[in-house]
Amino acid sequence: MDPVLMSRLLTTMTLLFHIIFATLGVGVPLFISIAEFIGIRKKDPHYLMMARRWARGFVITVAIGVVTGTAIGLQLSLLWPNFMQVAGNVISLPLFMEVFAFFFEAIFLGIYLYTWDRFKNQMIHWAFSLPVVIGGGMSAVFITTVNAFMNTPEGFTTGQDGFVTINPIQAMLNPATPTKVFHVLASSYVTVAAILATIAAFSLLKKKSSEYHKKALKLTMMATFIFAILTAIAGDMSAKFLAKEQPEKLAAAEWHFQTEEGADLILFGWLNEQDMPVGAIRLPGLLSFLAHGDFSSEVTGLEEIPEDERPPLWIHYMFDLMVSIGMALVLIPLLYLILMKTKKWNEHHKWMLRLIVLGGPLAMLSIEFGWIYAEEGRQPWILRGFMRVEEAATTSPYVDLMFIFFFLLYATLATVGIIVLRKLFRNNPVEVELEKKYPSIEKGDS
Amino acid sequence: MTYEIIGITVLWLFLYGYVIVASIDFGAGFFSYYAKKTKKDHIINQLISRYLSPVWEVTNVFFVFFFVGIVGFFPDTAFYYGTALLVPGSIAIILLAIRGSFYAFESYGSKQSNVYMFLYGATGLLIPASLSTALTLSEGGFITETNGEITMNYLKLFTSPYSWSVVFLAIVSVLYISATFLTFYASRANDTEALKLVRKYALFWGTPTIIAALTTFIALGQHNQRHYDRMLDLWWVFGLSMGFFMISLGLIYIGKYYGLAFISVMLQFFFAFFGYGASHLPYILDPYITIYENATHQSTGIALIIVFIAGLFLLVPSLILLMKLFLFNADYVKGKK
Ligand code: HDD
Ligand code: HEM
Ligand code: HEM
């Protein structure tokens, strides 16, 4: 099969798989750190146990994150040799910085995981979580600058045979970087908060009441609320960035064909033969507002983009799904907080918990939709304005075979990973572990 | 020194670091499998997992550092090696992925299954064999460019005596490095039973290492005369390497100063590795890529070096802390913590 198509599919598969674990790798350390800090401060074994149990699960997901990350790192050269030959001159700097962030994270993760009871002063152990949080966050920052560069390349001049001058710092700080970095970080944190909340709510649903899970739920719900708002703000800033610097991506996502003032926002629906949106919800003027913060401003339409440089129109659904989930992630914790603050109501109602259980998987889906939207919206470019995807791919005829191998690999990793995680927590219920570790806790209080 | 030379030196240094730390890990995989087969696993597996558990991710980053760095400093490597190595590269990734993830799954998840032990042992040998092939290719003659098309001659690779001697050398070196490290670690842990066993492994794998090194050297003479001659010019470096080999084997034989013995092994490989690397220059891929003609732009190269120096300030103290807590902390090593 066509090596270009297969390279695209293999890259897509690897990235979509890696991003699950990368998101966890960015977010989970933050929550481990917060839980341990509260536990030490309040002398509350429940929070300490939270940190321990989250960390134990994290070891499994990190392992998958590391090996799939290593896979992408090498695949970039194996599948996109022409791209790396050219862009490697520029993006090697952030990639190199990312490696140092990994190094830092890996070293302290090893230390953190194996020194739980080694220091008299618990704060020393807690302090080791900070480099892990920072390392994970920084690796996301650096890799996101690479992706931003692919969307709005800057920081070089070209001549007859390739680059004439290069300013790698300017390339990292390209116009897409600020909003992208902000949105990627916020969305990683909200996703992990929502997933941890899913686990707590699920346990509460199964075991009625447990102090441990109630505390975990409260902590993660408040975090979901805060980070969901930040994610939405960052998303809004990203849309404004697109309107200014990459209008074709926004226009394709919004099915906005003609440049006009006071443009409507189109939600869902489908396109008829004349490319007219049908069955959609129209919110008057809202697209102008999303794009420029002004209901009557002008938004560039697809008509201004040469036909062979237009992204596919189906990304509309990716965008809408992402935004809908984004709204849900604000509303679910809001409802929970209202129920909690109102004395008469019960925030642990069955239906409330069921809603929360949905939140985590939805958030992770939103990450996937967001990336598909962002990457597919850059098509046909791999380096917007400079290099097309088909010019970048390998010419090797064996990519289809490799696709099958990697598919089997990821399927195995996912299956075994899930089995191991289930065993890990099934065979070691929190009540038993709490009693063993902290016998002073009252029975039934766990 | 030019930025090209600094770049290749840094990369080579990290590749050397990877060779040492990864060899310990790969060899340990083989030894635990072998110990299980000979019903001696209860003696050494505890020892192995105490050292490896906290550091396996760090080992992996050494590798990532190298391949990100080489594409950064010499982007043309991505084009030549990337195009030629799609299949073997992908297979190496899959092996690494299986090994890394299963390692974590097993040490935290459940008890060790037979399938896992087999994979752990087998990948310990297969990965160094497949990665070392990249060095074979760099000697030239296997990857060719005709009208911008890169092709890889597999038949030639699989029938070349040089190629096989490198694979053999890689495997026995891994086992020797690993065994000498485990000997040192067991002696620190005062674990006499384990010490007896791993010391035997170390003594056993010493001689094949030197035989393999000599064979490879001769085979290289057949394959790349230029490189061979340059190596002869640097004969004293390889002499030093040989000397440290004798010291390490001697110390292990008399059963004293195991720490010093392991340091000698590190120096043995340091000299061999740098002698090989220095005589390989200026080629990264003979004859297509040289460090001078195919380096990245100066501004990027200098930025990379600055980041590297800044990164060292972060890394070196962290690595020292890691070693203090797990390698040189007697109580931890003895399993008391
Ligand atoms: C939990 C995940 C999540 C949620 C709830 C949202 N997003 Fe998002 N979005 C992402 C996760 C994400 C992402 C995975 O982080 C992306 C993919 C690439 C990127 O830069 O961030 C992204 C990209 C992305 C882009 C493209 C940026 C670019 O290509 O430069 C825009 C315009 C938005 N988002 C807008 C929004 C808006 C208006 C949201 C409303 C609440 C929203 N997102 C919620
Ligand atoms: C150096 C960095 C990167 C390179 C070279 C790269 C390259 C590519 C390429 C060539 C595609 C195929 C596009 C297509 O033809 O459909 C792709 C798709 C994709 N990339 Fe990127 N990308 C990079 C960074 C990222 C990052 C940081 C992410 C985040 C995880 C990401 C996520 C994705 C996703 C999810 C897709 C699939 C989109 C689809 O459905 O086509 N990429 N990438
Ligand atoms: C083209 C895209 C990407 C490449 C080439 C890449 C590369 C890598 C590599 C090589 C590793 C393993 C490092 C090690 O050995 O420790 C890794 C892991 C990781 N990656 Fe990615 N990555 C990409 C996309 C992303 C994105 C978009 C994020 C964050 C949003 C991310 C965050 C992480 C994190 C946090 C880890 C550490 C492992 C973990 O904690 O799960 N990566 N990545």
TrEMBL record, chain A:
Keyword Electron transport: yes
Residues annotated as signal peptide: none
Entry membrane topology: Multi-pass membrane protein
Transmembrane segments: 15-38, 58-79, 91-114, 126-150, 181-204, 216-235, 314-339, 351-374, 401-421
Compartments where located: Cell membrane
Pfam families: Cyt_bd_oxida_I
InterPro entries associated with the record: Cyt-d_ubiquinol_oxidase_su_1
Keywords for this protein: Cell membrane, Electron transport, Heme, Iron, Membrane, Metal-binding, Transmembrane, Transmembrane helix, Transport
Chief place of localization: membrane
Sequence similarity: Belongs to the cytochrome ubiquinol oxidase subunit 1 family.
Protein name as catalogued: Cytochrome ubiquinol oxidase subunit I
TrEMBL record, chain B:
Transmembrane segments: 6-34, 55-74, 80-105, 117-137, 162-182, 202-222, 234-254, 261-281, 301-327
The protein, known as: Cytochrome D Ubiquinol oxidase subunit II
Pfam families: Cyt_bd_oxida_II (PF02322)
Family per record: Belongs to the cytochrome ubiquinol oxidase subunit 2 family.
Membrane topology classification: Multi-pass membrane protein
Compartments, as annotated in UniProt: Cell membrane
Any one annotated GO CC term: plasma membrane
Presence of keyword Transmembrane: yes
Keyword Metal-binding attached: no
Keyword line: Cell membrane, Membrane, Transmembrane, Transmembrane helix
InterPro entries, A to Z: Cyt-d_oxidase_su2
